[in-house]
Amino acid sequence: MIYKEKFKIGLKDVWAKNEVSNIAILEYLEDIAAYHSDSVGIGVNTTEETHVNWLLLDWELEVLKRPKYGQVLEIHTWSRGIEKFYAFRDFEVYDEENNLCAIATSKWLLVDSKTAKIARVEPEIADRYQSEVGKCVFKDKKIEKLREPKEYISETTYTARRRDIDIIGHMHNLYYLYLAYEALPEEEYNKRPFNHIRIQYKNQIKLGETVKCKYVKENDKNIIVIKSEDDKTLHATIEIY
Question: Which of 68, 141, 165, 240 has its CA 20 to 30 A from that of 57?
């Protein structure tokens, strides 16, 4: 089943040259994923009945063409497979001329909303999504695990505020990208927009937690690793290039 929605690019969604930002694109993708789940009865408004939530584990976004402010995008999304506890979802973003502007893939974990423990995706839930098995936007069907660099060249810190916390009680997944941008050296930050974003989430950041955002550039990729103050907990690894 391919689910479709249209989104109009607003003022807050653009950066230089009035072009849509990566964060805005990911916000659209997050929303349409939620709308798709709403449509099959596994959404935000039905959590009290189903007792499950989808938790995002991984993003990979590639921008092919960057639409501008005021344009209307049509986004397609589908489940491309569900395995035990995990679901894999892909996306295509089209502009008003039906040009393919961006592709993305993602990995999600089903969680029990009462216990916050991992929940198995039962066949009754999986069947609702009518997965498009084999329909992948990237050649490699697997989302490879990102490795942590051995050394870094700079570090910033951030303490999670109330504005950062989502309905599940931890830092909203898109805000990790804001932290990554702030960790970039000025000369790298000014190279925006980047056309490839990869975010791998490991552990939640909660209200009041202070984290370290460690930066290094390897093989033309800006790598930001978000860890706890004591370096013992890995929160996320992000690649921007």
Answer: 68
